[in-house]
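Lecture notes, unit on protein representations.

Consider one protein chain, 339 amino acids long.
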Amino acid sequence: MLKSINDVHTYRIIRKIADGGMGSVYEAIQDGVNGFQKIVALKTLLPSLSNHTKFIDMFVQEAKLVANLVHENIVQIYQLGKTEEGYYFSMEYVHGLSLHEFIRFHNIVARQKIPVNLSIFICSRIARGLAYAHSRNNNYGRPLGIVHRDVCPNNIMITTEGLPKLTDFGIAVASSDMMGEDQLMGKLTYMSPQQANRENVDFKADIFSLGAVLFEMLSGVRIRVGDSQEDFVGFAKDGHVSWDDLPEDLDPHILTILKKSMQYNPDDRYETTKDMAKELEYFIYKDGYGPTIQTLEEYLRKQFPYLYHVTKNSLDKTSEFNFRASVDDGTATIILDEE
């Protein structure tokens, strides 16, 4: 009977995708036997944070929390590894663009509003992904109480197939974990007042943040603006929302959804994220038809044709580095050899 497998994973770096507050993300190719290849994304912890226990714990916690979340609207994590230089994990590579880029294009380049039905569709899919994460149980059947705590346009991806996906659970927590950090984590623009006031939060903080994202998609502006960091902190703590910035012709049903999702008191928000998803879906499908991932893909092809212009397969690219992760008994050794 098979008891264990000691394997060697080789990753070839294609390019750096982005730098974040805690780490960097790379597009890479995972090589296997007999010519097996798979495009993945690699997330590494910044070297400057590799000796900080708090950030190491957050990085590892992200991998552990998301490892068993398998949902079409959540970016999947494959493996957590450790090298002499620090931790990394491999995850699903998303070919597409962020919702932040999507919104920015409409505001600055196209100078037009995002179609209402597409805005509702995208947020309904993210609500489904959140509902799935919020409802997960541990191995003993008890609710994990996962809270993302950083739902925002930068952490929502849209694939070229028109599939919205939630990513970056870097500051997510299980509700049983300690919440009292010294530094306020998350983005103030989308943050619930409870999180801004450093109170213990549950999944209803994510409902508030998703409402803030939908507000921005529909109005073209964020729910709160300020002249200073102090303004943003104060507005976030008060739960301020600039309701007058919404379009005057906005459907009353959508306004009701927005106001319910962003109530100051969490008890006045939706009972579950699934309930919010249902309300969003009812609006776009009440006539028996509505937008699908194919609808969104067609829209992307029209507005973002460059996403579909493939000049060379990533699997055929010459990498700048060989990124070799040797996994043995849970310990990985990574070697970066410049070619």
